[in-house]
Amino acid sequence: MGIIPKALKALTLDLQRLPGIGPKSARRIAYYMFTLPQSRLEFLSQTIKELQQSVTVCQFCRLLSDTNPCEICGDSARNPLEICVVEDNMDVFAIEKAGTYKGVYFVLGGILSPAKGIGIDDIAISALQKRVNDVLKQKNNGTVEIILALSPSTEGQTTSLYIKELFAENEKVSVTRFAIGISVGSDLDYVDSFTLQEAMKGRIKVE
Ligand SMILES: [Zn+2]
Predict the structure, then answer these.
(1) Which of 41, 66, 120, 156 could make an S-S bridge to 151, C-beta 3.0–4.6 Å?
(2) pLDDT tens-digit series, residues 26-78
(3) Where is 131: in which H helix or E strand?
(4) Distance from the CA of 206 to the center of ligand 1, in angstroms?
(5) What CATH topology corresponds to 57-205?
(6) 107 C-alpha vs ligand 1 centroid, how far in Å?
(7) What spacing in Å lies between the alpha carbon of 157 and ligand 1's midpoint?
(8) What is the whole-number distance in angstroms between the Cα of residue 104 and the centre of ligand 1?
C-alpha cells in the first residue's frame, strides 16, 4: 500500500530516468499530467510514439533532422572542407547559436570510454573516416580541416587523440581545436554564445 497511486508512481519512475529530472520534479510532472485533458495526453503520447519514425539521421553529419541531408549539409554557403567533430546533437545547437561557424559538423554519438565499455565500434569513428575520404574525393584538390570540439575530460582527450592519429598519415587532413580551452562536449550547451564566439576566433593544431 502506498499513498501514490500505482499509475502515477510508474509514470514518476519513467520520468525520473530522463536527463536532468530528479524524483521531486518527476512526481510534480506526473501529477501535472494527470490534470491535463485526455486529448492533450493522447497528442503527447502520439508525438512520443512517432518520434523515431518522423526524425531522420543526416547521412553526411549524423545530425538528427527532418531532412536528409540536413539543413546545414544542404546549405551551399557552408564549407564542407571544415568539419567540426562533436559528441552529440546538443553541441551543434550551442555552436550554431554562437552563429560564427560556417563549416559543417560530424556527430560522433559519444566519446571513447574504456571504463564505460564504449569502444571504437560504439561511436561513429569509422563513419567519420569515410566522410572525410568522401569529401576529399569530391573536392579533388581540397584539404579537410577536422576541428575537434570534444569534452576536455580524459575520455574526450582520448577520443581527440585517437582521431588525430587516425589522420596523421594523411597530408590532406589537418586536425585542430578551438583556440581557447572552453568546456566543450556535453557542457557546450551551457557555454554562453560570447565565450563560444571568442573561442572559435582562432584554431590551433592538435599536438
Ligand atoms: Zn548533415
Answers:
(1) 156
(2) 999 999 999 999 999 999 999 999 999 989 999 999 999 999 999 999 999 99
(3) helix 125-138
(4) 24
(5) Dna Topoisomerase Vi A Subunit; Chain: A, domain 2 (3.40.1360)
(6) 9
(7) 24
(8) 7
